[in-house]
Amino acid sequence: MAARPRTPKVARTIVALRKALDARPLGSVALVPTMGALHAGHLTLVRQAQKRARRVVVSIFVNPTQFAPHEDFGSYPRTWNADIAALAAEKADLIWAPTPEVMYPQGFATRIEPDGAAKAGLEDKFRPHFFGGVATVVAKLFTQVRPDFAMFGEKDYQQLCVVTQMARDLDLGVKVVGVPTVREKDGLALSSRNAYLAPIERAVAPVLHRSLATCAADLKNGMELPDALARGRAAIERAGFKLDYFELRQAKTLAPVSAHDKGPLRLLVAAAIGKTRLIDNISV
Question: Distance (Å, rounded) from C-alpha 212 to C-alpha 284?
């Protein structure tokens, strides 16, 4: 009978985290920040981290400061036992799982307010609280773990841009690495929130990726930008989505583009089906 995978050590306090990091062999450290409810996309980040660093730390923290009062903080999927088993199978070295009280102790009064890509009129237009919460918690994770590398999925592309800029601007000493989006066979980007989809909504959800791919092909074939975007938006709305945005932006800055701008460019979409809001993007 095969031996059961070794359960990674779990640290829940700053003191325990420091002790665990100091006890490990010297060498580079890679951090995989997550909110738990791990899926194959997260595990791909872990594997990519293992290629870059000797030790891999996975953080699991559902960050309350990036949720607005009307959003799904209370119902966000929490699958601790399954997460631990998955990370054991991947041979992760350490799990950093602070409580909200550890991350935001009484009297906590400092918050990072990013600019640049965080004010691009995409996610920030619909979730104005979001990137301040993300930047603050990620900066804390970086200073707590002190990694050499941090792995982020490209599915949350605006977040990747914001975190990359923040790490560079604040000299945090970590290289932020973007990892390509992991998808289901029908193109749906993996997300913990996919668990919210009813069967009929799950059947419709791949329309987002198909619309992105069709729009990219239309642009490469010479269709005018407004026409290509309008075609994509119409297809998404016909499928039953409530569309927030479907935009072509500069890949590095997320600045708007004109018909004459050259690459690298990124198509980004956010739309809700039923009660579930999904995002996706592709390069053009």
Answer: 9
Q: What φ, ψ does residue 156 adopt, rounded to 5°?
A: -90, 70
What is the spatial distance between Cα 8 and Cα 1, in angstroms, rounded to a whole number?
A: 21
Tokens of 139: 């900066």
Q: In degrees rounded to 5, what are phi and psi of residue 274?
A: 65, -125
3-class SS at 139?
helix
The pLDDT tens digits for 217-248 are: 999 999 999 999 999 999 999 999 999 999 99
Indicate which residues carry an active-site annotation. 42
CA atoms within 13 Å, Cβ hemisphere of 225: 15
> Could you tell me if 217 and 232 are in contact, meaning their C-beta atoms sit under 8 angstroms apart?
no
Instruction: Quickly list DSSP for 182-233.
Output: PB-TTSPBP-GGGGG--HHHHHHTTHHHHHHHHHHHHHHTT--HHHHHHHHH
Tens of pLDDT along 39-93?
999 999 999 999 999 999 999 999 999 998 888 888 898 999 999 999 999 999 9
Pairing assessment for the beta strands 9-11 and 29-34 based on DSSP bridges: unpaired
| Complete domains list, the chain, with CATH | 9-179 (3.40.50.620), 192-283 (3.30.1300.10)
